Automatic annotation (TrEMBL):
Record family assignment: Belongs to the acetyltransferase family.
Alphabetical list of Pfam families matching this protein: Acetyltransf_1
PANTHER family membership: ACYL-COA N-ACYLTRANSFERASE (NAT) SUPERFAMILY PROTEIN, ACYL-COA N-ACYLTRANSFERASES (NAT) SUPERFAMILY PROTEIN
Protein name: N-acetyltransferase domain-containing protein
SUPFAM superfamilies referenced in this protein's UniProt entry, alphabetically: Acyl-CoA N-acyltransferases (Nat)
N-acetyltransferase domain boundaries: 7-170
Length: 391
């Protein structure tokens, strides 16, 4: 049995810790022999997946001078319910991601120590709840958080992933018009219609104005005239409409599938070649996942009316074509398993996750905005708002 020295935890220092962090990331990304594994390239920025949040921190665990683990966390204010007057109830929420422990130092309590140190920082900064996301089949992660750290299984959203083909998709332009909204109009529409949705960020304006948001797009029936501002649109909306926003993950990090056989790689190349040569056939080509690839994340999906599904499908096709033009291989989103518009979102089952797992923990006794009770015990709503800054 390996003898363990004293484990110390300190804040990540980008001026001297990048190489040691990347080394641990590479070790942790090694998949089973002979099986496909997904690798993440953080482009030399270990905090890239949290740095766009309002408040964030990364901690390292060390034994002597050796980095043996890490954890990332961020804090924001989100909707956790609604008042009787239908106004949102806000809470300060923390998010844990990127927990890694070197394979040679697991089962020594390092992960638990990192989580507890991060929770101390959450409490010091006024967070009332903390949550994390993991695959439901990740037994080690689920056990750590639910059995040792006091988290409860909370929500089971769906991650829906669609490949980007070599040919553009039809956007039903003869029946649907797609309008790009200015950030201020997008903000007004989101706050008016979705502010009481679970996990809706109070600083949604910061998200919509961020350089990684490529735009917010509204689908309406062909022939409808945009009145010029969202307030007038909501005063007399069309019978059906839908909207979504697009976040550019490609400029933050890229993914790569490793461990594929030559046969699988050849099959992928063949489908892409045929799709490029014969685009009118609209064959379902497979993206080249075996080299680094980027993706776009769709957030803020919603709509109203009997044909909202049709409107959302047109928006998803538009987003696919935008991703194709920008060199991405995948378009992804995450929605509640109860989302009414879920069936309108195109995706490949083999690439998607039907049941992601979010676990939550109550950190404090006081609440920042009204009396909600314990959010961890509240029933799920039909929709959630997934913040792209945490993808």
């Amino acid at each position: 049995m390996m003898m363990m020295g004293v484990v110390s935890v300190r804040e990540f220092d980008p001026s001297r810790d990048r190489e040691s962090v990347e080394a641990v990331e590479r070790i942790c990304d090694v998949g089973p022999s002979g099986k496909l594994s997904l690798f993440t390239d953080l482009h030399g920025d270990p905090i890239c997946r949290v740095r766009n949040s309002p408040t964030f921190l990364m901690l390292l665990a060390e034994i002597g001078q050796e980095t043996v683990g890490m954890i990332r966390g961020c804090i924001k204010t989100v909707t956790c319910g609604k008042k009787r007057n239908k106004l949102p109830i806000y809470t300060k929420l923390a998010y844990i991601l990127g927990l890694r422990v070197s394979p040679n130092h697991r089962r020594m309590g390092i992960g638990l120590k990192l989580v507890r140190k991060m929770e101390e920082w959450f409490r010091d900064n006024g967070a009332e709840y903390a949550y994390m996301a993991t695959e439901k089949d990740n037994v080690a992660s689920v056990n750590l958080f639910t059995h040792k750290c006091g988290y409860n299984k909370f929500r089971t959203p769906c991650i829906l992933v669609n490949p980007v083909f070599a040919h553009p998709l039809k956007t039903f332009s003869n029946k649907v018009a797609i309008i790009r909204l200015a950030p201020v109009e997008a903000e007004f529409l989101y706050r008016s219609k979705f502010a009481t949705t679970e996990f809706f960020p109070r600083d949604v304006d910061a998200v919509l104005n961020h350089r990684l948001t490529l735009g917010t797009f509204l689908a309406v029936p062909r022939g409808y005239t945009w009145p010029g501002e969202s307030a007038r649109f909501l005063a007399g909306p069309p019978a059906s409409w839908a909207l979504l926003s697009v976040w550019n993950c490609k400029d933050v990090f890229t993914l790569q599938v490793k461990g594929a056989s030559r046969v699988k790689k050849t099959l992928v190349r063949t489908t892409r070649a045929v799709d490029r040569a014969l685009p009118w056939l609209r064959l379902p080509s497979v993206p080249d996942f075996f080299r680094p690839f980027g993706f776009h994340f769709l957030y803020g999906l919603g709509g109203e009316g009997p044909e909202a599904h049709k409107m959302l499908r047109a928006l998803c096709a538009f987003a696919h074509n935008l991703a194709k033009d920008r060199g991405c291989e995948v378009v992804a989103t995450e929605v509640s398993s109860r989302e009414p518009l879920r069936c309108a979102i195109p995706h490949w089952k083999m690439l998607s996750c039907e049941e992601d797992l979010w676990c939550i923990k109550r950190l404090g006794e006081d609440y920042s905005d009204g009396s909600l009770g314990d959010w961890t015990k509240s029933p799920p709503g039909f929709s959630i708002f997934v913040d792209p800054r945490e993808v």
